[in-house]
Design a protein that fits this description.
The structure holds two protein chains of two kinds. By secondary structure, chain A is mainly α. Chain A has one domain: Cytochrome c oxidase-like, subunit I domain (Cytochrome C Oxidase, Chain A), CATH 1.20.210. Helix content of chain A is about 70%, strand content about 0%. The longest helix of chain A has about 35 residues. Chain B folds into two domains: about 30 residues; about 130 residues, Immunoglobulin-like (Sandwich), CATH 2.60.40.420. The model of chain B has no long low-confidence stretch (mean pLDDT about 95). The chains are: A mainly alpha, B alpha+beta. The interface between A and B is large, with 78 and 71 residues. The complex binds copper (II) ion (CU) (2 copies). The site of one copper (II) ion (CU) has 6 residues of chain B, from loops.
Amino acid sequence: MSAATSPGDFRRPDTLALAHMWVAFSLFAVGTLLGLYQLLERAGMVPASARTYYGSMTLHGVVEAFVLTTFFIVGFGYFVTATSLGRAVRWPRLAWIGFGTMLLGTVVAALSIVSGNASVLYTFYPPQIAHWTFYAGAALLLVGSIPWIVITLAMQVRWKKENPGRPIPLSQFGMASCAILWAWTMVGVVVEVVFQLLPASIGLTQTIDVGLARALFAWTLHPIVYFWLIPAYVGLYTIVPKAAGGYLFSDEMGRIVFVMLLVFSLPIGLHHVFVDPEQAAGWKLAHALGTFLVALPTLLTGFTVTASLETAGRLRGGRNLFGWIRTLPWGEPVALGGILAVVTLLPGGFGGLVNASYAMDAMVHNTQWITAHFHLIFGGTAVTVYFAIAYYLWPRLTGRALYSRRMAAAQLWLWFSGMLALTLPWHYLGILWMPRRIAWAPFDPQIVARWRPYSLAMLVGGTMLVLSGLMFVANLLLTHRNRNAAADREMVYAETMEPVVSVPALLNGFTTWNWLLVVLMAMAWAYPIGQFFFMDVHKTLVWGVK
Amino acid sequence: MHIHPLEKRWAAISLLLVGTLGGLIVYTAVAMSIHPPSNVEAIDSTRLHLTPEFSEENLGVKREKDGTVVARVVMARFMVVPHEITVPAGVPIVLRVATPDVVHGLHVAGTNIGTQVVPGYVSQVRTTIDFASVARIGVRNADGSVTVPLFCNEFCGLGHQSMWGRVIVTPK
Ligand SMILES: [Cu+2]
Ligand SMILES: [Cu+2]
């Protein structure tokens, strides 16, 4: 079913994909160094400076959460859509304009942060207001990703018209759900930036409705995590089983999962403001229940990906209940990345359930537990699959064999163990009430002494991660100059155990789901956002950041 | 359309798991009324010092006419006012917190007191402090009470880390 495509079959967007991913991965490496600096500063090993610390933290967050992700996803997305549908990217010039816009936005925002005028962290909660260039840069990064949404969906619509009744390839179905999710997701933060933060930052308004801003940001804050995660799931479903030498266990379950991720992850953002005073308990409870639903697609994914890996292990001679685990291709970087990502999903998902637990959130809210949690689930699961995808794509994009498979496998193990070494003590610091986002700890020695051993342990994990990140980038860089040509440049996706001949219309498009989302989003947000327009709100004065 | 029987079984198990967890939350919320702080009470934060409730002389811990213990705290860049409050363990207490400037967070070690403090709103936490759990991590004082730190846990500017106070908990 999956059509193999070589660069010559049509104008495959290899350069477009490489350009996006190189921006993503080079800034990713810079970002890990910032993370290590922050650990050292908190441990008292470099001179303490709040200005440098919070500036660094803002840049670290913006680079890893917004730049790495958006550039990687858009680049990977173009490549998946083109190779899954077997045709060139439509409107390639528009795609490059989008790339340029995103790059410009990144540079502007980065300069704004480095100049010390935008130390508002990557969540930029008002009424603290950064220099306007920070918001302008962020807006350009967002706007520059819109062409990708348009192109991804336009290509799918045309393909469907030309292939009536045929199932959209799962890889494309997943990326289309990601594009639609991204369109819905950005609405909240775009409205906040354009109507509240930009006007305040250029001095047009002196006051701001903080409750409204927090609700709009919460609209975006949950689904954006799934914008980062869906491409990783696309990799787990359609690339990892192939690289492991097995089959995808079930195509249909994959479709159900992508639909669920889209529909369930959007109307639940109030869980980010569980302990906010301006939202009522009933609405928080409703969003809490929705949050539990979004655990479903991840539980299903864990099963299907494990079952797919099992087919690979058994084909390679694995017997008995667990014998197939031993025979998995542990030295194959793409498969290894997939395996480690799924393993990381277990502790990461557990932490997520704790945070989602309504009143229990008050115990861990804004402690180090939260930062530990999202580093584990994002850095541990999503980014590990980004690595695996890169190892799969680089020979195909460059025509050169991967510089070193052994180095790649070592890099993945180092990342996996470094991430655990970093985040396990980090979670515990949160349970010991250590607040997140503090440049140092000027509190009573009793409590600080309790934190010390865990802060030092984190340093070990952080160092491993920086090393691993540099190994990853070096391997990709050296691949470009490798004398050995790639075995082949064909892009192939995993085949399903049983061929997929037809799927119900509901699992072959998104129209119905979009209408359902209109209803769900209205139900979930009309009151929590609308209340600020009819209740007696006192606007707040705007505060600078210096 | 084809879903493997094993996958169906796993989907059922997953649904059961998610349903149980969600059910537990609804149960604790409805039957035991355990909620996060959510009182939706607006206040003009630009005139906070002029409101009778959050004027300077009214801050700190008071026993109201009906017997409840109420602690009123203002969180402002980068201090907690008053810096130290004394509350009893084992009895229901109410914390009312407001800010004249930006968003802060209030978290008291050893307790389940945790709330965002958002300009324009009064945050309110109702709880009963368990003496044993604060005693486990706090500093013991000569009179038998225990001191635990109170942190700001929302980034509020370059002095954020310096924004903290103390809660002295007296045994029942
Ligand atoms: Cu969320
Ligand atoms: Cu603070």
